[in-house]
Amino acid sequence: MTEARALDTGTDHLHAKIEDGVAYLVMNRPERRNALSDEMLRGMAAALREAETSADVRCLVLTGAGGAFCAGGDVKGMAAGANRGGAGATLDERIHRQRLSQRETAGRIFRMPKPVIAALPGAAAGAGLSLALACDLRIAAESAVLTTAFAKVGFSGDYGGTYFLTHLVGAAKARELYYLSDRVDAKEAERLGLVNRVVPDAALEAETRALAARIAAGATVAYRYMKENLNRAQEGASAEECLDLEATHHVHTGLTEDHREAAKAFVEKRTPVFKGR
Question: How many structural domains is the chain composed of?
């Protein structure tokens, strides 16, 4: 066990630390079911940016405090006129700021060359669900519920939810989930492929830590290029492009210390020790 290192997010709305090769980002507005705020989104962008390039981070976990993952946009704040992109901002400025925020959060989670796990202790709704879908893996407590929610508050949707959901469940089901905005329980979410596994509520933290530790102990360089291969395939690269990219990355990873260590460990019938190089 290594001593945890705090990440400065600049806000109490997001807590972040690095421990044993894992960066833990905890959305922290439990009184609002961790609804997104401008401060939280800026803090998340900063924490993700630092974790992406930190040598002591091999895996990330995104979760929420107080029994919820994230309720999405702060509808109460919207009704009060908050979170409007800044006083005096023009429509064009608000759109551009929203685009930057999406790229720096959901987009960075999707693009960064490190696996990201979403741990859902409870509700994931709207943009909160979008952030969870941007992650590589999702583990949910049995009491968790998921909903796009946007149709019920008159929004079309943001933070990449339409893209990620379409690729996870297909176009027809994604349309149904967006148009109707029905609640999906954890068991149904697992059946649909929205989450990778469901665990008892009391076991979520331990199961998430075990999964993150397993990934953090893995072949970091290989994960980097696996993720790029999978992202390119998801984004519609041709078969030839995917084959060529796989060949390049496969040969490259075959020259790493990690591959040599794994091959040696296989012969010696022991668990390899990966160093990420």
Answer: 2
Both 161 and 83 in a single domain?
yes
pTM exceeds 0.70:
yes
Range of the domain at 78: 5-216
Cα three-residue angle 48-134-42, rounded to 5 degrees: 35
**Binning pLDDT at 50, 70 and 90, where does residue 89 land?**
confident
Q: pLDDT tens digits, residue range 188-212?
A: 999 999 999 999 999 999 999 999 9
Tokens linked to 17: 């630390």
- Kindly report, residue by residue over 9-42, the tens digit of the pLDDT: 999 999 999 999 999 999 999 999 999 999 999 9
Cα-based torsion angle of the residue sequence 21, 2, 105, 155 in order, rounded to the nearest 10 degrees: 110
In a domain, 275, yes or no: no
CB 86 within 8 A of CB 108: no
Q: Are residues 226 and 176 in the same domain?
A: no
Q: Which of 181, 196, 216 is the last residue of a domain?
A: 216
